[in-house]
Every structure is written in C-alpha cells, then in structure tokens.
Amino acid sequence: MLPQLAVLAKILCLLMVVMCGAVPAMVRSVSLYSTCSSGNVTVIGRAVKAVGRDDNNAPFQKLTTQSEDFSGKLYIFAEKSQRYICFNKRWKLVGLPKKQKSPMCQFYEVYNGSYLRYRSVADGVHYLGFNKWGKPMRNPNGRQECFNFIKYNPHFDIKHHNSLVTSNMATEPRLVVRKPALIRAPKKFLPSSDGGRETHRHRHNRWKIREDEVSPRRRHESRLLEANKY
Ligand SMILES: *[C@@H]1O[C@H](CO)[C@@H](O)[C@H](O)[C@H]1NC(C)=O
Ligand SMILES: *[C@@H]1O[C@H](CO)[C@@H](O)[C@H](O)[C@H]1NC(C)=O
Questions:
Q1: Does this UniProt record's set of keywords contain Signal (predicted)?
Q2: What domains are there in the chain, each with its CATH number?
Q3: Which residues line ligand 1 (CB under 6 A)?
C-alpha cells in the first residue's frame, strides 16, 4: 500500500474509535529501566527481576502497559512470557497468567522528580521496585531510588526520527531516548568551499562543535524528561 494511503487508513481508524468511544483500552510498548539495579524489568515465567539486556533476555524485557479505562490504572504485561507483573499475598513481585489478573496487578504511574514510580492500586504503600542485585524489593521503606524507573520505547524507529528531524520539524517526537550523535553527525560533512570563505567556515564550525560539546548533557537530561512524559 502507498504510505499516504496507510496513514489515511490509520487516521480513519482512529476517527472511528474516537467517534464510537469504542475502545478505551490503551496498549503501549515499553521497557522499564530500574535505576537502582541498572537493569531492565525482565519477566521470565513467574520470576520478575531487573537485569541488563542481552540477546537471550531481550524479548523478556518487552513489556506493554495496558489500561482498561481512564482511571489511570495500569497493568504491566510481559508479552513473551504472557504474564502480568503482580504482587502476591506477601507483597512479592511475581509474573502471573491472565486468569490470575486482579487489582494486585494494577499500578498507578506517578512521577518522582524526573523518574517514574508504579504504585500498587491494591495498597498505595507498595511500589514496583528492584534492589541493586535486580531482585524485587520486599521492604517498601527500603532505598528510595530502588523504586524509580525510566521508561523506554524499544520499538522507536530511528530512521523515522531522522527523517522527521531533517525535514526541519521543530518538535521532536517524544519517545527519543537514544544516540543523539547520529542526528548531528552529518554537519561535519558539509561540503567545504574554497579560499577565505573556508577559513571563515572553519572558525564557524569550530564554534559550533564546541557548542555541541557543551550541550549533550543538557540534551540528555531533557531527553530523560521527554521519555518519561510518554
Ligand atoms: C533497556 O532497554 C532499552 C530499550 O530496549 C535498551 O535501549 C537499554 O539498553 C536496556 N538497558 C539495559 C541496562 O539493559
Ligand atoms: C519521591 O522520592 C523521595 C526521595 O527519593 C521520597 O522521599 C518521596 O516519598 C517520593 N515521593 C513519592 C510520591 O513517591
């Protein structure tokens, strides 16, 4: 299908959904990075932990957040394992199949500074959290940063992003989390002209580069915020 047609079809679909108020369910694909364990939330069968990504566990880090209405209550679903992240009766985090879905598997997504937290709907004292070894937190009064997360969209398409940036879009898509260098790189390869103009351009570029050296940090921070907003 032509890309334009595909876009039109999507818009039509969206319009129909909005008009009928048919499907309140929102499903979003994410990875959750636990700041305390420096790993992503990983659900393998019943086990829920936060570990670094590798080839084997990457599919188990693919999560979706699902809401059934506009109450703000979310389920966190692990696609590969087909399990929901839930608390058990002793407030330990476990992966449970759909038939055991309950309010113990529902969370409110709240901000803490620029980080996200997932507070249990069943009991607001409890939050999703992982210690520095990537094990689920048992003590809700434990180290506070262990309850903080950064949300990534692993299916973000960098080519699409670049095409948006180069077509001079003023605002960036909100899901950006990676590799700002890729976007700026082409600047260095500007075709150079001759003579006195070249020295001018050099000076100009040097200034530009220095400017870029200063900003990535700030950029990174704002990116974190942007990522979290999503
Ligand atoms: C977490 O997941 C994101 C998105 O898939 C990925 O970019 C990042 O490298 C992962 N981080 C770790 C520590 O596994
Ligand atoms: C936010 O974080 C601080 C310190 O980490 C903690 O004391 C506070 O209770 C948190 N707030 C919420 C709403 O979680």
A1: yes
A2: 21-152 (2.80.10.50)
A3: 31, 33, 38-40, 52-53, 61, 152, 154
User: Tens place of pLDDT for every residue, the chain, 230 residues?
Assistant: 556 666 666 655 444 444 444 445 678 889 999 999 999 999 999 999 999 999 999 999 999 999 988 899 999 999 999 999 999 999 999 999 999 999 999 999 999 999 999 999 999 999 999 999 999 999 999 999 999 999 998 655 444 445 444 544 444 444 444 444 444 444 444 444 443 344 444 444 444 444 444 444 444 444 444 444 44
The minimum-distance atom of ligand 1 relative to the CA of 177 is 7
What is the number of residues in the chain?
A: 230
Q: Tell me how far the alpha carbon of residue 133 lies from the centroid of ligand 2, in angstroms.
A: 21
Instruction: Considering every ligand atom shown, identify the ligand nearest to the alpha carbon of residue 118 and give its number.
Output: 2
| Atom number of ligand 1 nearest to Cα 33 | 1
